[in-house]
Amino acid sequence: MRIPKHIGVIPDGNRRWAQNNGMSKEMGYDEGLNPGLELFRTCKKMGVKELTYYGFTVDNTKRPSVQTKAFTKACVDAVKMLENEDASLLVVGNHKSPMFPEELKEYTTRKDFGKADMKVNFLVNYGWNWDLGNLKFDETTTSRNKIIENINSKDISRLDLIIRWGGRRRLSGFLPVQSIYADFYVVDDYWPDFKPGHINEALNWYETQDVTLGG
Amino acid sequence: MRIPKHIGVIPDGNRRWAQNNGMSKEMGYDEGLNPGLELFRTCKKMGVKELTYYGFTVDNTKRPSVQTKAFTKACVDAVKMLENEDASLLVVGNHKSPMFPEELKEYTTRKDFGKADMKVNFLVNYGWNWDLGNLKFDETTTSRNKIIENINSKDISRLDLIIRWGGRRRLSGFLPVQSIYADFYVVDDYWPDFKPGHINEALNWYETQDVTLGG
Lengths: 215, 215
Known about the structure:
The structure is a homodimer. Chain A has a single domain (6-207), classed as Undecaprenyl pyrophosphate synthetase. Helix content of chain A is 29%, strand content 19%. Chain A has helices at residues 14-20, 33-46, 65-82, 128-132, 144-150, 196-207; strands at residues 6-11, 50-57, 87-92, 111-113, 119-126, 161-165, 183-187. Chain A has a seven-stranded mixed beta sheet with strand order 4-3-5-2-1-6-7. Chain A is globular and about 50 Å long. The two termini of chain A are 23 Å apart. The interface between A and B is large, with 42 and 42 residues.
């Protein structure tokens, strides 16, 4: 089976899940923690080498503060949870802003845990414009490598496959440069309803796709 | 009905269509011309204000020259075809390269035809890295407007909806900045099998989506 090296994860639908289950919206985020761990273990078993989770964005922090607090805490907890696994952890986002959680600052350079044989990246207080905002070229430079080396998320590699939960078919600012050639798979279930079978479905579909990198 | 202002069109599957119909691959491109016109007219009738067609990319020009010639000619013909419509035409791409067709140079600034009440953009010899390659910031600038004003495709507005024909679920370098919040709809039929019903399907689906712009 052709396994993607790097999978991007957009864990959407926490608030809709909470509402459907009679909870207030912000209560949905905690329900996404175990799915995150289960997804990590499933992907690891299948031989995926790198995972990137879409934590929260600068856009998201404009939501009511009770929600902002809840998703920020969920991101901190998710990173801490993976410290107990064999993982090499990195948090990428605008860490100079007050919205960036203090507890995650030490992860803005990669930290290894256990065998550290799988890279796991979290986008935290990330913004596409923050990511591209560091590019500096002279007018004749359109070198891909120079772009790739100068974005703020340069430690995150090209994505092979992006899986989005919650039914929406859009990227919502997720790593615009690394997403360029990625295949995009959408799961209709909300993220808290994650099951390993979703990964199997996505990989079975990915298997049928060709890789052309735009050629 | 909620009509997207700006639709991006990825007209993929010409070569696969040709092969399925017993032709050599490069013969598929010509079959995409009438669909392009029909799509324009359908969208216009529905009140869409701007259309962007993915013509060809710098990546594509690495294909066998018989194909490169065929898709370049099809792009030139597509632009010329729309001169007879009420359209405001713009061609965006690396026009300093020899792969850019001479005949389209005059369209690298917008040209109005008839009532010119719909913007139509064509990406011709376009590359995502060419597009981003002009960005210049000082380190503290992550302003969205500054990014949007400095990309090489700055005359093309934000996309609301992207429709890709040919079944593949990826952007393949299509306007990474304008695509950030776009909804992405995939039609399994190959582009030469376009029918106006595809637009109805896509718009019916789009109608059910919310617009959050990342919020």
